[in-house]
Amino acid sequence: MNNKTHIGIVGAGKIGSSIYELLVGADFGYKISVADQVEGMWNIPEENYTKLTTTKPTYEGDCVQFKEFVKGKSLIINALPYYQNINLYKDCCEFNVPYFDLSEDQTLDNYIKTLEKIPFTMRYCGLAPGMSSIVAFDLLKRLSKPQTLKIRVGALSQNADNKLRYYNSWSAEGLVNEYMGDCQVVRRGRQTTVPALGGYEKITIAQHEYEAFHTSGGIGTLAKSIESRYNPFGDPPSTIHADYKTVRRIGHHHYVDFLFNDLQLDQVSLTEIFKSCIPQTKKDVVIIYATASSLDKEDEVTYYKVFKPRMINGRYMSAIEYTTAIGLVAMVELFVKKKIPQEGYVKQEDVEWKEVLSTKYGYYYRETEENIIGL
Question: Does pTM surpass 0.90?
Answer without folding.
Answer: yes
